[in-house]
């Protein structure tokens, strides 16, 4: 072997070690970069949660405003649960029925847990698939008075109504029939309406069964006789003018189904 050749071999050894070490360093640097980069991802601003504006009118005990201006009642709680399951937050807003319908028509309210099939809302809303509850619209009369034949026995009589409520075409036709010459007496809440009927300040009361039952119990009255005029299914009603309206109603339907499949109790009081 010629002089100097071992030197060449010895000189190449560090190069070989360097070649072997460099890939390890590269992997180490990559691992460090991944670890150091992780907090940057974690610290990124989260996507803000979509908040649904929920409109409702006072319908105790199903949904109502408590002393702290918070929406309460089993229908309000169900709406919160389903919206949360669908990934939405909620903001409740109590409104008289006329203003609520106007808000659905202009999109300032996204959702109303209310009556399906309102003709005046048909062009402006999408209805969820699921029936959340059923409520009855009844014509009440005092105990001991005969059940009226409708419509003829209403002619010239007085009828107590809740101010701000709207009804279906067949009921509105009855109220507006000039031949019946009904005297319409409006009051602000169900308790005063039942009290008016009890005190003979009106011949009949047109009202929904669930709130009347609550009012009757508070007044410690016996059951009131009635005739059912309509049965109303309650659904999620989404404004067509809300952002991503079709996606919202689909998400709510799927969330309701997911909760039901998981065995959640979604039942609400029904008449």
UniProtKB/TrEMBL annotation:
Gene3D superfamilies: Periplasmic binding protein-like II
Origin: domain of life: Bacteria
Designated name of the protein: Bifunctional lytic transglycosylase/amino acid ABC transporter substrate-binding protein
């Amino acid at each position: 072997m010629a002089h100097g050749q071992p030197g060449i071999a010895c000189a190449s050894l560090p190069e070989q070690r360097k070649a072997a070490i460099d890939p390890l360093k590269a992997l180490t640097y990559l691992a460090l970069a991944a670890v150091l980069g992780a907090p940057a991802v974690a610290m990124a601003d989260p996507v803000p949660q979509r908040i649904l504006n929920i409109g409702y009118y006072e319908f105790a005990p199903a949904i109502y405003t408590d002393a702290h201006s918070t929406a309460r009642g089993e229908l309000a709680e169900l709406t919160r649960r389903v919206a949360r399951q669908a990934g939405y937050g909620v903001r409740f807003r109590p409104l008289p029925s006329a203003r609520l319908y106007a808000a659905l028509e202009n999109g300032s309210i996204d959702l109303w847990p209310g009556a399906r099939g309102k003709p005046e809302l048909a062009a402006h809303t999408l209805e969820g698939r699921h029936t959340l509850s059923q409520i009855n619209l009844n014509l009440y009369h005092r105990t001991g008075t005969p059940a009226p034949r409708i419509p003829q026995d209403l002619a010239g009589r007085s009828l107590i109504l809740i101010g701000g409520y709207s009804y279906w075409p067949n009921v509105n036709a009855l109220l507006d029939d000039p031949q019946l010459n009904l005297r319409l007496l409006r009051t602000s809440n169900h308790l005063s309406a039942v009290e008016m009927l009890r005190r003979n300040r009106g011949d009949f009361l047109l009202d929904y069964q669930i709130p009347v039952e609550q009012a009757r119990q508070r007044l410690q009255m016996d059951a009131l006789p009635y005739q059912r005029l309509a049965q109303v299914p309650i659904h999620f009603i989404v404004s067509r003018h809300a952002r991503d309206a079709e996606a919202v109603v689909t998400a709510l339907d799927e969330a309701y189904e997911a909760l039901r499949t998981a065995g959640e109790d979604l039942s609400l009081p029904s008449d």
